[in-house]
Amino acid sequence: MRLIVNGIERELTSEPLEPLLHALREELGITSPKAGCQEGGCGGCTVLVDGEPRRACLLPLAAVDGASVTTAEGVGEPGRLSTVQAAFHEQYGIQCGFCTPGFVLATTALLERNPSPTRDEILADLGGHVCRCTGYVKIVAAVEAAARGDVSADALNAGGTGSSRGEPEVVVTGSPA
Amino acid sequence: MKAVGTRLPRYDGVGHVTGRTVYVDDVRVPGTLWAKALRSSHPHAGIVRLDTTKAEQHPGVHAVITHEDVPRNVYGHLEALGVPADEPLLAEQAVHYRGQPIAVVAAEDEATALEALELIEIEYEGRPALLDIRKAFDPDAKPFHQWGPVFPHFGTHTSRRIRKGDVEGAFDRADLIVQGVYRPQAIDQVPIEPQVALAVPEPDGRLTIYSCTQAMYFSMGVVAAHLQWPLNKLKFVGGTVGGGFGGKVDTATETISALLALKAHRPVKWRWTREEEFLASSTRAPWHMEIADAVTQDGWLLGRKMTTLHDAGAYTRFSSYGVTKHSFHHPGAYTIPNLRFDGYVVYTNRTPTTAMRGFGVTSVSFAAEIQMNRIAESLGMDPFELRLKNANRVGDLTANRVRLSDPSTVPVVLAAADRIGHELKAEYRQMTNAPRSGELLPEHLLASVGGGS
Fold it and tell me: Which residues of chain B does A158 touch, with a Cβ-Cβ cutoff of 8 Å?
């Protein structure tokens, strides 16, 4: 089996009927797709296969032979976040983070297809992703911010070696005592 | 106070959005074995025969453990607080709930571990299961739990009791008695990250345990107790939890992973499937609550009698703690001077129950608030005014005899009325939580505000 994973060509020795999720996590050590339910129900294992969001837990390796697979690791990296990643970070569309890679990838595909989705379109498109922490309000806000391109340079550069890790910039929004 | 009122980036946000955050299941240690558990297929049964020989001999299997491999099999989650233990880590002569772990296998990979489970020979002797707490007290009910139908260790009592004031006198004086029964059901926490642990034997004889627990030092103590090890031989790595909501307070996977790792001399990971999560991970408890309130025609709550049955499932875990919290909150956010409360921890052949967001309190808050609506309806009174009239105020004495210094009932009820545009009479709209006086300090409340009982 052969895959292009995050732009790098990989030969795999996993069995053809192994789920793509298992091959990514156990053979390649790419761990952002999560084994949340392994039944296609939670969206935590979502990856992009030739740009389309797919449940890696239900997808046999044989069905994606030769395809290009993108995971959250390949969308951006610390210091150089994608617009979608920066928006999720900046809008607090995350809490425990376990479902976040799936949401980031689904949002990336959505905005590729439909750069200005309505709120209803966002809800419909991300409906297959389960988050137990946030209540979704801030996730939807993050998707809307990403669609508007409303992300700060600080957020895009967050996590880079040049960023001030210990002393983040303080933006005063309330009235300090 | 640099952080208050400011908008700070999440310290873990970059890791989360780039997929770099390392959860327990993402830790990679060469040579890691997979664990799989043989779980009870019965809600209640005797184990007549258990033979793991063929599983042990299956190629690729490195260890199989049963209760005989656990240095101290029965350990209670509340033992450190003086509550005796009642739950085996692995079932011994009987199983008390469907999904209860009996034997666990560590093998080269997940598929081999599952094959080995099929080779474990087990014979059950089915027994009647108790699944409805209301039947636990039937004369012909045969308690399966060693302590009988209910937890008997609330001091010398079999229930968490609250006795405050003269409740019979309050019911004698009442114009109306309003009764209600409330039965919220079990809820699974459903974190997206299933229960998982990775135990790694270190060359110096210690164990490193990667854990998704919500309670690191507590879980460390539980593992040490089962292993009969000193704490300094355990190194716990945790804090990165893929959702917990109370469900990861119980130590679900760490101890068994540790025992397998020690027996196999290899790192062992035990990750539950979603099916195991729903079948065997502890849930929020189902509750059965019966309330009777003595009220006056002008809207005072003179007294409350309440009986609560808390479905503990098959073992105690934290149930008695949950019922204690529940008892403290049983008048809701209101001051009721005369109280009689009995809360029972009832054993059933269900998955043991545990913490979930507001452990013990959400159930009683639901019941108490619906009960207030029913009282208001029975009296033909505005439900907001009923609440404001009986609201906790500065100086009031709670069910568990705490003198309130800053109760929030009045401001919260006023804010709720405001948000839905509910008109209130001026005397209610202008209320504060200031100490009682005048019309808000009728004779029946004097004892609750003063130093009396």
Answer: 9, 13-14
Task: Give the A:B interface size as CB pairs under 8 Å.
Answer: 132
Task: Report pTM.
Answer: 0.93
Cβ-in-10-Å burial (0-12, 13-18, 19+) of B278 comes to: middle
In this structure, are B262 and B329 located in the same domain?
A: no
Q: Measured between CB atoms, which of B1, B14, B20 is closest to A158?
A: B14
- Looking at chain A, the number of H-run helices and the number of E-run strands are 7, 5
Nearest residue to B110 (alpha-carbon basis) of A81, A169, A22: A22
Alpha carbon A83 to its chain's center: 11
Residue B144 CA to residue B138 CA, distance in Å, equals 13
For residue B105, the distance in angstroms to the closest alpha carbon of chain A comes to 20
Using the structure block, give the residue that is written with the tokens 């052949």: B349
Question: Which residue is closest to B111 within chain A, CA to CA?
Answer: A18
Tell the CATH superfamily of the A2-75 domain: Beta-grasp domain (3.10.20.30)
| Pair B267, B305 in one domain | no
Cα distance between residue B441 and residue A54, in whole Å: 65
The tens-digit pLDDT sequence of chain B (453 residues) is 788 989 899 999 999 999 999 999 999 999 999 999 999 999 999 999 999 999 999 999 999 999 999 999 999 888 878 889 999 999 999 999 999 999 999 999 999 999 999 999 999 999 999 999 999 999 999 999 999 999 999 999 999 999 999 999 999 999 999 999 999 999 999 999 999 999 999 999 999 999 999 999 999 999 999 999 999 999 999 999 999 999 999 999 999 999 999 999 999 999 999 999 999 999 999 999 999 999 999 999 999 999 999 999 999 999 999 999 999 999 999 999 999 999 999 999 999 999 999 999 999 999 999 999 999 999 999 999 999 999 999 999 999 999 999 999 999 999 999 999 999 999 999 999 999 999 889 998 987 776 443
Same domain, B296 and B393: yes
A contacts of B16 (beta carbons < 8 Å):
88-89, 94, 97, 100
Q: Residue B415: which domain range?
A: 160-187+283-449
Kindly provide the b/e burial profile for residues B195-229, where b requires at least 16 CB atoms within 10 angstroms of the residue's own CB.
bbbbbbbeeeeebbbbbbbbbeeebbbbbbbbbeb
Decide if A129 contacts A99 (C-beta within 8 A). yes
Q: Does residue B137 sit within a domain?
A: no
> In what side-by-side order are the strands of the sheet with B338-347?
B160-164, B338-347, B301-313, B287-295, B176-182
The B residues from 24 to 53 touching A (CB cutoff 8 Å) are 25-26, 28
Answer whether A92's CB lies under 8 Å from A145's CB.
no
Contact B193, A96 (CB under 8 A): yes
Query: Is A94 in contact with B6 (Cβ distance < 8 A)?
Result: no
Contacts of A94 in chain B (CB under 8 A): 10, 13, 16-17
The answer to whether the Cβ–Cβ distance between B17 and A100 falls below 8 Å is yes
